[in-house]
Design brief:
By secondary structure, the protein is of the alpha+beta class. The chain has 3 domains: 46 residues; 35 residues; 32 residues. It has 5 helices and 7 strands. The strands form 3 sheets. Strands 1-2-3 form a 3-stranded antiparallel sheet, covered by helices on one side. A hairpin with a 5-residue loop joins strand 1 and strand 2. This is C2H2-type domain-containing protein.
């Protein structure tokens, strides 16, 4: 027998069964936990971690990062490791600015919220 085709390999990575309760159970060849999901879209998102379809465009130039499960993960990588490339290619940046007057903090939305709670930035009521 020869090497499995790309289609056969993908089928092994993204294999699933439907349980008696109608939930989706991952049985992919690289899945260690075999989780169960109520929605098929959640299963698909989980299985992207098995195959990591989004490759860094700088991989051929020596970047050690091969693939990412989601586009947002690739974008975050590009901004942290290849900012000149990200800016030139107009990759959307994930960082936002703290909206508290006079504060210059910038970060991901979840980190900005954490920052505001930690330093006591509260929105003024009109």
């Amino acid at each position: 027998m020869g090497q499995p085709s790309d289609q056969e390999e993908l089928a092994k990575l993204t294999a699933f069964t439907i349980t008696e309760t109608g939930e989706y159970k991952c049985i992919g060849s690289k899945c260690k936990t075999k989780p169960v999901f109520k929605r098929k879209c959640d299963l698909t998102k989980h299985q992207n971690n098995h195959r990591r379809p989004h490759e860094c465009p700088r991989a051929m130039e020596g970047c050690g990062y091969k693939g990412f499960a989601e586009v947002k993960d690739l974008h975050r990588h590009l901004w942290s490791h290849h900012p000149v490339y990200a800016r030139a290619e107009k990759i959307p940046e994930e960082k936002t600015k703290c909206d508290y007057p006079g504060c210059d903090y910038r970060g991901r939305k979840d980190n900005v919220q954490r920052h505001k709670a930690a330093v006591g930035h509260k929105r003024k009521e009109p």
